[in-house]
Design goal:
Low-confidence stretches: none
Radius of gyration: 17 Å
Strand order of the largest sheet: 1-3-2-4-5-6-7
CATH class: Alpha Beta
Distance between the termini: 24 Å
Structural class: alpha/beta
Strand content: 5-15%
Number of strands: 7
Largest sheet: 7 strands, mixed
CATH architecture: 3-Layer(aba) Sandwich
CATH superfamily: Alpha/Beta hydrolase fold, catalytic domain
Number of helices: 12
Number of domains: 1
Helix content: 40-55%
Length: 253
């Protein structure tokens, strides 16, 4: 498994931060956030999930197996306690980890999340055929209307095309396996009841992939949870509103 931990690597932080990317992405979506926390003396593990980015396969097709793989890696590094941040599919992996081993997770942050995280049959069919149309849909639906035409608060970044290019680097079947894992994750609501970590959900007001109202049942199943909504933002909040996401992360991590 490829991990970005900065040039200094792990220094023995008692509460390292684990960042988990979403469908068809890799650790680079967390670069701004990882660098910030590294500069403030925190240990960071920004992961490439199996078969993604620089990590070797095989691809895993369930949230449970992806979470187990991550926990096994943390075991191999003797990391007993940690905080975890996940976006979209990564948020489900983070939830699964915080539920199955609650005594290890200090803080849980779920960004752009919903349960169930259903995926349309049309999108699954495109992804199964490795049709570029699947990436086009995920990119288009992953941003608010304003972001689709520009309006970036951080100059020099083309939000939608940057995400499209990132997904286009995915190997064959990655998008399909990821979408199936999200769609088949059936007992996440029950898993939320087992979470004891400090929990934060960051949701986008104009998220078309995981609309805010689809997180209602998830929110109600946590014993204790804080919810932050980013106005006018779509699903890919780390790109659309990185500064506000970082503010919210800093509050809980």
């Amino acid at each position: 498994m490829h991990i970005f931990s900065g040039t200094r690597g792990l220094q023995g932080d008692a509460n390292p931060i684990v960042f988990i990317h979403g469908t068809g992405m890799d650790h680079t979506v967390w670069t701004l956030f990882a660098r910030y926390f590294l500069r403030h003396g925190r240990d960071v593990l920004s992961v490439d999930l199996p078969g993604h980015g620089k990590s070797k396969g095989p691809l895993l097709d369930s949230i449970e197996s992806l979470s187990s793989n991550l926990l096994n890696y943390l075991d191999s590094r003797n990391i007993n306690k940690f905080s975890v941040v996940g976006h979209s599919m990564g948020s489900l992996i983070a939830l699964e980890a915080a539920s199955t081993q609650p005594e290890r997770v200090n803080s849980l942050v779920m960004i752009g999340t919903a349960l169930p995280m259903a995926v349309s049959e049309a999108l699954l069919d495109l992804a199964k055929r490795n049709d570029p149309g699947a990436i086009d849909i995920l990119t288009f639906m992953g941003y608010s209307n304003n972001a689709r035409i520009g309006n970036n608060k951080n100059p020099g970044m083309w939000m939608t095309e940057g995400t499209r290019r990132l997904m286009q680097r995915s190997s064959k079947d990655v998008i399909f396996k990821d979408l199936m894992a999200c769609s088949n994750y059936a007992d996440g609501l029950e898993k939320a009841k087992n979470v004891s970590a400090n929990t934060l959900l960051i949701l986008g007001e104009n998220d078309y992939l995981t609309p805010r109202h689809r997180a209602k049942d998830l929110i109600n199943n946590f014993e204790s949870v804080k919810v932050k909504e980013i106005r006018n933002s779509g699903h890919t909040m780390m790109v659309e509103n990185p500064n506000l996401v970082l503010d919210y992360l800093s509050e809980i991590l």
